Amino acid sequence: MLTLLPDDGYSVAVRTPSAGPAKEGGATGDDQQRTDFPAYASNVTGLDSGPGRSWLTADAIAAVRDEHDRAFDDAEYEQRLTSVRDRMARGGMDAMLAFRPSSVEYLCGYHTAETAPQPLLVTGSATYLYVPDLELGRALASARVDNVRYCGYADALRGLEAFLEHAAGVLPAGARVGIEVGHASTPPHAVEYLRGSRVTVVRGEHLVETVRLRLSEAEVRCVAEAAEHTRAGVDAAVAAAREPEATDSSVAGAISAALFDGANSASAWGPVVATGVRGGIPHSSWSHRRLGPGTTFLEFSGAHHRYHAPVMRTLAHGPPGPDERVLAELAETAVAAVLDTARAGVSCADVANAAAAALGPLPDGVVFHHLFGYPVGLAHKPHWMDGAPFYITRDNPEPLEAGMVFHIPASFRYLGRCGVGLSQTFLVTETGARVLTHGAAQLTVL
């Protein structure tokens, strides 16, 4: 039975019986019978000097925990923490402070719609999650952490000093703390504050994200489930584009409805629908225009527990013209070459070189970014490119590893005239590439 133990007037300790055995494979949630998890965040403490939160009662906490939506079992999170702590030790770090929301979720399961910085401190033996008091419900529902520290909602929005002071205070003087200094989710003033405190800040760029590159079997199943939603989006786009008065925005609306239907999370980006000339202008999207002439470029992803499986598809409104045929052939060639070459042990440069050789010299006027793949998986807004910059490019000599998942963004354009994008999301295995998305990467003629 859940009990609430009074502490100092505004802190609580939460305990529950041990959980039964988890389901095989790691994933939990909508696609699996609910498991009773043990109560983590067993030390929930306020950092402000205000009155206690009278609404933080044992009954309320029990009700929140009953609605938990953690995506994986305990063993999965333990393995992730172990891997990150090993990397911390190799890098001479005593602790790590993660601000990137997707990496916080990766390590402890915590996720919320709130965008205020809510960092996770990982030491060699404990984890601390820092949240506004309004997010205590989300922390109790989703986070697998040893400690939760909170302050008032307005205080958390104004500054991080209470969180940072506590984080520095639980570490020994001179402790080396890794922070992803260069990422947009890390507030610069947080780095400055810690540098002026009793700890030593060291660059921890992509420490967690490098571990995230190799997906577990449970994570791959999440990507595969996301791919089912992506397939529904493609089918909806084709059906909507065939309507007599179809516009780019009506197609985008149909894609969005299909991606949300039956999903447990939203995509971090898109959908992109760029029709006619706008398809030839990179990263243009829908603006309530009639479809065509020529082609309509699509890019979007379904999501499952915020794991993504993006695709690019292109619709042709009638027989494609010569420009569209050239671009489609280039896109098909690039996708096929990557899938034929990629497997564990092959370097990213070798895959990119093979694809570049298959393409040959590009026709005059063709715009291409020469990025033959980027990693995907767990992602938070603003984009599903939310991990380490481990790209399939000609200047990356690192080998592919089994368990990595990539999107092949084979988009080719004549600037200001037209564009064609075709792609797949695939899993790297010991024997080759296994495509996780559905349907042929070919021009779809309506």
Automatic annotation (TrEMBL):
Signal peptide (residue range): none
TM ranges: none
Domain (Peptidase M24): residue spans on this chain: 222-430
Gene3D superfamilies, alphabetized: Creatinase/methionine aminopeptidase superfamily, Creatinase/prolidase N-terminal domain
Spans annotated as Disordered: 1-35
Domain Creatinase N-terminal span(s) in chain numbering: 80-213
Name of the protein in its database record: Xaa-Pro dipeptidase
Organism: Haloechinothrix alba
